[in-house]
């Protein structure tokens, strides 16, 4: 890990702290109120707030996890140099794609 | 006379432990035990030492699974069930028996820019550095390293990542970073901010736990992380 990746990984972790707390709060709220899927979709569809909130979450999580997997691979496998970058970008883009598909399903559909 | 069952590593990386029976004495150090074996049981035993008083950092070995300076480790403190197992330091190539090749260790000192880069020459007057200034206090807290490589042998990250500079080299870089007389700071920050530099540290604190001089390289590395991060955000690093 170099200083740029370090800042990105720690920064994305810091960003996720409030996002995770609000996400947990939403889960507790939805469970306690007994909201159905339809109730939830009624609140999220077309919502700029929830779209931005979960899009930020996806970017932060994909960034954080991809850099972490790169570090683990560097320590536990013989991957070096460009192979590590390919692994990091592939994993990060996969997570981002999966996340954005989920966000789109909740906000746009 | 009581005896200690001493297992000593013999050979290179593919060697094995061999058992010796060594008389137990009062105030006996682990280095005394190794020396006794070489003088009385097997003169072909290879090991390294110099000062015998905890100054030079030459005699570090793995004693009952822990890296230690053997000249300042009393056998009474480390014997378990009448047994001592003494091997070469971990994370370094074994030359023979208890002697490791320290070349990778010191090459990483060079890679971390652990060499003083003076602003003045020998013909200039000696600069007065007040000992109470914050940078000097930070440097002084980390300066007493004797290069024994105990921290390097204790470090999980060194074991996992051969590119990692290690706690001693980074601790050295930290002392120089806090030396106001040094003019090589940009290159030093660049070196410790690169792949394998201070950001590879997981803060396991094994270096701090095992350092015979009670230094805290983890804290030094944390300082490097702060400085490099600030420098990067200011655009001073590539």
Q: How would you describe this structure to a colleague?
A:
The complex is a heterodimer of chains A (109) and B (238). In chain A, helix 1 crosses helix 3 (48-76) and helix 3 packs antiparallel against helix 4. With 109 residues, chain A is mainly alpha-helical. Chain A has one domain (3-107): 3 helical TM bundles of succinate and fumarate reductases (Up-down Bundle), CATH 1.20.1300. The model of chain A has no long low-confidence stretch (mean pLDDT 95). Chain A has helices spanning 3-33, 37-44, 48-76, 82-107. Chain B has two domains: 3-100, Ubiquitin-like (UB roll) (Roll); 103-233, Alpha-helical ferredoxin (Fumarate Reductase Iron-sulfur Protein, Chain B, domain 2, Orthogonal Bundle), CATH 1.10.1060. In chain B, strand 6 (94-96) and strand 7 form a beta hairpin. In chain B, helix 3 (103-111) packs parallel to helix 7. Helix content of chain B is 35%, strand content 14%. Chain B has ten helices and seven strands. Chain B has a five-stranded mixed beta sheet with strand order 2-1-5-3-4. By secondary structure, chain B is an alpha+beta fold. Classes of the chains: A mainly alpha (109), B alpha+beta (238).
